[in-house]
Structure formats: structure tokens, C-alpha cells
Design brief:
five-stranded antiparallel β-sheet; 497 residues; 18 helices; 19 strands; alpha+beta; iron ion binding; 33% helix; aldehyde oxidase activity; 20% strand; Ubiquitin-like (UB roll); Uridine Diphospho-n-acetylenolpyruvylglucosamine Reductase, domain 3
């Protein structure tokens, strides 16, 4: 495999498939500015800046080096904190702003913060986007400062926007060298198919290999449980799994689509989904984590399955012999961490009817932290409304059972009821208390969870009836996008995405 490390093309031929970028930087290259804090993608001390050519343009994103296999970065530009400063231009604007704002205290987390801010600086300079408080907070959402020094760090992020220099993406030598190596092959133990046909062939050759996409969950088996992987089959380059397309009345989302890519797509089309996506993990994780991975791992507290349940999504599963089948997500989860996915299958895509996406829907996530945290309770709700009456209802939860789950009996209490029928709402909430029996754990007690679930349904019902209620998001969302209006007829005619 070949890649650019800072300012040099590097070729490696003998690394294990699961050797992380963090270990490589520290152990093989002595670049110890990249720190190990958690080894699970939570703290951001290992943040790495990665450049790639996209349609001829050089763009930079951040990721957690501690859970990223180095071989997944073949053909890319890896930038460690040591390389940001240059002899001819001095400190990078993100570095200089951190110095000027006294943004570093103990210093352990500082390299990660600097690279997250540098990524924001690069992207804002190239797109003309404004660097404001919200964008700074989003950029550093996956970086934890144990000294609680966020105020000067945010000030540094705002101040760096006034500096104009040091754009990595404008350096022609990086573009030309990436063009030479962007199709670089990884090692024999790390397979990167580019089509479904190649994927099927790879799995036939390596039937015991693990599939990996973002690796944000799978790689914890390596870093936390010390499990060694032999052959890994990387799904991130399979073209059919990277698409978001409208097709015959459906929205088809590839299983390899990352959260960040889904954010970009949904920003104007489905702003309530965009809102929720800002609450999933951190920017570094969203740059790597995929929709398919979030569903396939079978976690009862995964954020995306309740949304797919609310929209009655169908899942396409492919076998290694090239055959495929579809299964509704309602039938996909069999028990705790158990799914209908066979050992010789992988998730290819998700299909949702556009008409269902046009229905009134709301998503709410409750967690201890605003970002970079797992749900205590998550509700995904959908209401089909006609002539002031509720038709189909979907109330799907995460964190309330051994699997992502719909509250079927509670849904029935609201079906065919007037949207303003508060008595029906109270019956539904009482039904929910008997229908679901959540557990108590470190994130929340069972009582808290059921009380919160009832309150979230009430919140969705209030919004359905035109009331404006507070909603918390990592993204600044223009109020016009979320305007419900007071007229029921207007609600039915508009797209409540």
C-alpha cells in the first residue's frame, strides 16, 4: 500500500490488516504528537487529518486514528500535528490561534483539537462557509478536554478564520502525488473491492474474513478485547453501497454511506434527520461510521434503526453467490445483538418509500452529553394525517428493550384518532407504560426511561398539533425549515421532513 505521510510518499507491504493508524504513527514513525487516550474513538486525542481526492478536488476530514486500520487509508494524505507548521509559513492558523487564545492547558488533548480545527479551516476556506460558534463546536465535538478549557479553544477556532494562509488543499504537489497513488492497493490481508461482484468474489476467497466499513464498532474488538483479525474485507469503496438515489418512488441509501454523507444529503431535504445526525457520536466518528454498520451490529441503543423502523425500511441483503433478498427492518432484529443477517450475507442498501418520508416525523434523542454520547432513550415517530385524523402511526424506540423496537400497542391507541384528541394520547401513554419494560443501567434507570419515552411521545404529539417546542441539536437549523404552521390543512400539504 502507498500513501502520503505528511510530505513523503510511503509504501508498506507487511503490516497486519488490523494495525491501526495510531500505532503506526507512534510505533513505526515516532510521531508521538498523536496521543492514545481511550482506544475507542471517544476522546479525540488521536485525531488525524486525512486528505483525499474527490472529483479532482482535495478535501480533508478528521478521524480517530486509534480505531482506523492504516490500510483503509491507502492512497490518501495523512497529516499528523507535527506537519501542520512549516518552515516557510510558520504555525498553521489553527495552531497560532490556540497559542494566542491560551487554548492549551495540560496539552495532552491539544494536538487533536488543533487537527479538528485545521480541518474546519481547510473546508471553510475552500467552500466559503462561515466559521461560527456552531461550526467550531461541531468540529471539536469529538475532542474532550479534561481540563475543561473549552472557552479559549472555541475562541481560537473563531479567531483562526481571520488568517489566510497555509491551505493544504491548495498545494499542487499533494494533488499530483495523490493522483499517482489514489488507486493504491492495500495488502493481501486487507481486501478493498470496488463493485458488488468483486465483493462477492472476495468473500468466496476468504469465507472467514470479517467485513469492515467505518470500523467504529468492529475495531473496538481489537483495541479493547485484543482480538486479532486475519483478513478484513473493506466495504467503503463498493460503488453500489455508496449511493443515495431516488428510484421508482423510493429513496435508496447504500449501506456504505457515512453519517457525514447522509448529513450533507439531508440538510435541506430532511432537516429533522439532519438535526438528529448531529447528535450521533462525533464528527470524527460520523466521517467514518456507516448506516449499514449501525444496523448490522444489532445494538439496542444504535441511533439509526429506530428511524428506519419509523419509515418501514426494507433492507437488501446479498449472499456471496450473488443472490439477494429483501427483509423489512421490523423482522431484522431477533434478540439482543442477534439479527437475521446470515454469515454469508452483507447489507447492501436500505429502501424507504418517498411518500412515507413526506409524512410528519420527529426524532428525539436523550443522552447525558449533547454529542459524542450513546442514547439513554431515542424516539423516532411518524404520523400519517388526513382530514385531521391520524392514519398510520410509528413509534420506534432505542434504549427501551433488547432490540430497537416499535411500541405496537401504543401505536394502535392513536390510529384513526383525531390529531387533537388528548384523551387518546393519555390512553396511549398509559399503554406504553405497560407495553415496554426498559432496564436500569449506568445511563438511566428504568423509571427514567419510561417517563422520558412518554414525554417524547407527548412532545411529538404537541408538534403534530402545531405547537413549537424546544429541540436541541448540534446543528443550527433555520426556523423556517422546522416551521409547522397552525393550520392542519397546511400541515397535510407540506413536507414535514
Amino acid at each position: 500500500m502507498k500513501f502520503i505521510l505528511n510530505d513523503k510518499i510511503v509504501e508498506e507491504t507487511s503490516l497486519p490488516s488490523d494495525f491501526t493508524a495510531l500505532r503506526y504513527l507512534r510505533e513505526k514513525r515516532g510521531l508521538t504528537g498523536t496521543k492514545e487516550g481511550c482506544a475507542s474513538g471517544d476522546c479525540g486525542a488521536c485525531t488525524l487529518l486525512v486528505g483525499a481526492l474527490e472529483e479532482g478536488e482535495l478535501t480533508y476530514t478528521t478521524l480517530n486514528a486509534c480505531i482506523t486500520p492504516l490500510q483503509s487509508l491507502a492512497g490518501k494524505h495523512l497529516v499528523s500535528v507535527e506537519h501542520l507548521a512549516s518552515l516557510d509559513e510558520g504555525l498553521h492558523p489553527a495552531q497560532q490561534a490556540m497559542v494566542d487564545a491560551h487554548g492549551s492547558q495540560c496539552g495532552f488533548c491539544t494536538p487533536g483539537f488543533v487537527l479538528s480545527l485545521a480541518s474546519l479551516y481547510e473546508n471553510a476556506a475552500n467552500t466559503g462557509a462561515e466559521v461560527d460558534r456552531e461550526s467550531v463546536c461541531d468540529a471539536i465535538s469529538g475532542n474532550l478536554c479534561r481540563c475543561t478549557g473549552y472557552r479559549p479553544i472555541i475562541e481560537a477556532g473563531l479567531a483562526m478564520a481571520d488568517r489566510t494562509s497555509h491551505l493544504l488543499s491548495q498545494k499542487t504537489w499533494i494533488k499530483s502525488q495523490l493522483a499517482e497513488i489514489e488507486n493504491s492497493m492495500a495488502g493481501a490481508q486487507y481486501v478493498r473491492p470496488e463493485t458488488l461482484a468483486q465483493l462477492h468474489q472476495a468473500k468466496q476467497r476468504h469465507p472467514d474474513a470479517e467485513f469492515i466499513a467505518g470500523g467504529t464498532d468492529l475495531m473496538l474488538e481489537n483495541t479493547q478485547r485484543y482480538r486479532d483479525f486475519d483478513v478484513l474485507i473493506d466495504l467503503t469503496r463498493v460503488a453500489e453501497m455508496k449511493q443515495i438515489i431516488e428510484q421508482e418512488g423510493d429513496l435508496v441509501i447504500g449501506a456504505g454511506v457515512t453519517y457525514s454523507e447522509l448529513e450533507d444529503y439531508s440538510q435541506t431535504a430532511y432537516p429533522h434527520l439532519y438535526q438528529l445526525l448531529s447528535r450521533i457520536a462525533s464528527r470524527q466518528i460520523r466521517n467514518r461510521g456507516t448506516l449499514g454498520g449501525n444496523v448490522a451490529n444489532g445494538s439496542p441503543i444504535a441511533d439509526m434503526p429506530p428511524i428506519l423502523l419509523a419509515f418501514d425500511a426494507d433492507i437488501r441483503l446479498d449472499k456471496i453467490d450473488g443472490s439477494s433478498r429483501e427483509i423489512n427492518i421490523q423482522d431484522f432484529y431477533l434478540g439482543y445483538k442477534q439479527t437475521a443477517l446470515a454469515a454469508d450475507e452483507c447489507i447492501v442498501s436500505f429502501r424507504i418509500r418517498l411518500a412515507k418520508l413526506a409524512s410528519f416525523h420527529r426524532f428525539y434523542k436523550v443522552s447525558k452529553r449533547m454529542e459524542d454520547d450513546i442514547s439513554s432513550v431515542l424516539l423516532a415517530s411518524r404520523f400519517d394525517v388526513k382530514d385531521g385524523q391520524i392514519g398510520a402511526v410509528r413509534l420506534a424506540f432505542g434504549g427501551m428493550a433488547a432490540t430497537p423496537i416499535r411500541a405496537l400497542a401504543t401505536e394502535a391507541c392513536l390510529t384513526q384518532m383525531a390529531i387533537s384528541d388528548e384523551q387518546a394520547l393519555e390512553v396511549a401513554l398509559q399503554t406504553l407504560r405497560g407495553e415496554l419494560t426498559p432496564m436500569s443501567d449506568m445511563r438511566a434507570s428504568a423509571k427514567y426511561r419510561i417517563d422520558m419515552a412518554c414525554n417524547l411521545i407527548r412532545k411529538a404529539w404537541l408538534e403534530l398539533n402545531g405547537m413549537t417546542v424546544p429541540t436541541f441539536s448540534g446543528h443550527p437549523v433555520p426556523s423556517a425549515w422546522l416551521e409547522l404552521g397552525q393550520d392542519v390543512g397546511k400541515q397535510e400539504a407540506s413536507n414535514h421532513a
